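Case study 2.
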Amino acid sequence: MSANLKQLLIARSDWFAREIMRAVKAGEHAYITPAQSRLLAHMAGRPASMAELARQLAISRQAVHKTVAELVRRGILEVRDDPGRGNAKLVVYTEKGRQVNRAGAKIIEQIEQRLARRLGPDGVEKLRELLSADWE
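Prediction:
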């Protein structure tokens, strides 16, 4: 029996995450864990609340706090008061964090280039188009 669409998407997402971590471990930011990489990917270079990150990652706020605390300790993120929401906190990138984000973007670009060699540029563009389509 062939895999269903969800299984295929999970398998390819897992492959992409493994490829990212392989490159991360070979670079200057080798200390970044898969959980930290996933959190940073969900932030996508933008500030986010702890609650928003917990929802997006489908993990507890405690797990988000622990992951953010380690990234704060590493100087990649900082936690600030959210000016728009009273006592809420906002997780933001530091300058070092923006450098890490740019390094991550380069890794993703390299993986996409490898995919283009395997699937062809049209295949990658079609994949991007299908994944960007409105599914709602």
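The mean pLDDT is 94.
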